[in-house]
Specification:
Largest sheet: 3 strands, antiparallel
Helix content: 55-70%
Structural class: mainly alpha
Radius of gyration: 47 Å
Distance between the termini: 116 Å
Shape: rod-shaped
Number of domains: 2
Oligomer: single chain
Amino acid sequence: MQYETRILHEFTGVYALGEGPFSRWPMLTLNIERIFDGLRNGDLPYGKSGITCGDPTLLDDPELTIRHVDLKAWMTRFYPDQKPEFLFDDIERQVHLAISSETVQILLVDREALKLRNAEMEQSLQRLKDQCRVLRKSAESQKSHEREISSRSEATYLNIVGGLLTLLLGQSPSGKLLMAI
């Protein structure tokens, strides 16, 4: 960009690659050649003094102009891998070539569908958590209804079990079984 004035001053036509005053900038010569190829073949609209017209005599006119939007559209169509700063902003230069507006739209629709599904799953999770909380409370309340036996009750139960065992397995003083099975 710092040599723009010099380039425009010295440019008097299209040079072959590597020749003329632009040999220092081989890509500049190549790009000039590409632009004139687009102009000659009708791929790139051009005009005079900012007004687009298709007059082929303008190709040699020093007042030949190309509208910014036309150059940008032409570059996007024919040279999508090249995005010069003066035509494309930072975001446009960073966007991957394979990503089209249709792809972005599809991704946005998918994203919205996933957001809805995520919201449904979060609601389902919340319902399950609520059910789990209710079941925990129910289990805790059942535990509280179970009574622990006191030491006195435990001794009574043990005496009853002992008496039953003596009755079943014991013998009378004469040696007879107390209970015949």
